[in-house]
Amino acid sequence: MSRRPSPRRLPVAPALDAHRVELAACRRCDLAPEVLPIVSEARTPRVILVGQAPGKTEIECRRPFAGRAGRTLFQWLARAGLDEQNARESIYIAAITRCYPGPSPSGRGDRVPSPGERERCAGWLATELRIIRPALLIPVGRLAIDRFFGAVPLDRIIGMPQQVEHEGGRSTAVALPHPSGASSWVHQPGHRDLLDRALDHLARAMAELGITSSTRSAA
Predict the structure, then answer these.
(1) What string of DSSP letters covers 115-169?
(2) Can you tell me whether residue 193 is helix, strand or coil?
(3) Phi, psi of 166 (to 5 degrees)
(4) How far is residue 78's CA from residue 87's CA, in Å, rounded to a whole number?
């Protein structure tokens, strides 16, 4: 008996192009008209980085991690051997939610996306995981880490790569703390050592994938 052929899977770049068009048109949440979804630039990635949500600068620049937190994040990636330009081309930069949620009521940092906003946005990340099937996953910050690891203390996750299951299969996950200046975690005793350890693991993982763009920079 002949076997039925498996359905053809659209190549990653065309699939992501079509996905980006749909994502850019998303209006599932009741946000201001000028608050539009932020879309990644990478077309043939093997790595997905998942943040929390865009900030005000991202809305103005139309690029993920374009503000102060982004500068810190790309400094971390440079320490792992990947400069910003190559990071944007090699890594699909996603988030738990894709629109700026507005400022925090406390006046410090941005508002944490509501559970309803996270639920309405969840399908976009699930689709990206299925399309890309990343070899390496980089959750950044509390919400992204919770998405893949559950509610585990950050000091039990940062610097300790693990294999995680998700909609696209199985990936090595190297978590990072949130790079926002509003986050104090990295400044607490011992936590910079955990960050350094995470960047060491990230450097090795990216080198194995052949996407390291430079020699590692100093801290």
Answers:
(1) HHHHHHHHHHHHHHHHHH--SEEEEBSHHHHHHHH-S--GGGTTT--EEEEETTE
(2) helix
(3) -155, -175
(4) 9
Q: Which domains does the chain have, with CATH numbers?
A: 12-209 (3.40.470.10)
Q: How far apart are CA 62 and CA 71, in angstroms?
A: 15
Phi/psi class of residue 141: alpha, beta or left (left: φ > 0; alpha: ψ in -120 to 50)?
A: left
Tell me: the pLDDT tens digits for 64-73? 999 999 999 9
> Tokens at residue 13, please?
């770049």
Q: Does residue 45 have a pLDDT over 80? A: yes
Express each pLDDT in 101-150 by its tens digit: 988 888 777 899 999 999 999 999 999 999 999 999 999 999 999 999 99
